[in-house]
Amino acid sequence: MPSVPERLATIEARQAQVIVRVQDLYDQVNGTGGVGWPQSIRGRLHAVEGLQAAAASLEKSARDISRARARRLDTWLQVVIAVTALIVAVTSIVGAYAALF
After folding, report:
1. What region does 4 belong to: left with phi over 0, alpha with psi -120 to 50, or beta?
2. How far is Cα 58 from Cα 77, in angstroms, rounded to an integer?
3. Are 31 and 43 in contact (CB under 8 A)?
């Protein structure tokens, strides 16, 4: 069985290793101590959030464009219906006028 000073030395050595590991993890998360921001976890998360926001914006824009095309189609159909109704009205008037004479 190790003596008290030996056990204390072992615990202090392990504590030093834990402190180094915790500092490394902190550096990797926050982008300090030789770890660049783009390589850090927070930097990567920031990049992913930016890409996600861009994808959401692109999806919304695509939806808006699709709706605008549908409106144009509705407008186009309304024009066709109006022209057809005008042709029918003119034909009816001309036919009624021709029937009078």
Report:
1. alpha
2. 29
3. yes
CA-closest candidate to residue 23, choices 15, 8, 33, 38:
33
DSSP 8-state code for residue 35: -
Token pair of 46, please? 């920031």
Tell me the C-alpha distance between 52 and 48, whole Å. Answer: 6
Cα 50 from chain centroid (whole Å): 8
Please state, in angstroms and rounded to a whole number, the distance separating the CA atoms of residues 46 and 50.
Answer: 6
Give residue 96's pLDDT: 74
pLDDT at 101: 61
Q: What are the start-end ranges of the E strands in the chain? A: none
Q: What is the mean pLDDT of each run of 10 residues along the chain (101 residues)?
A: 90 95 88 78 86 89 84 80 88 77 61
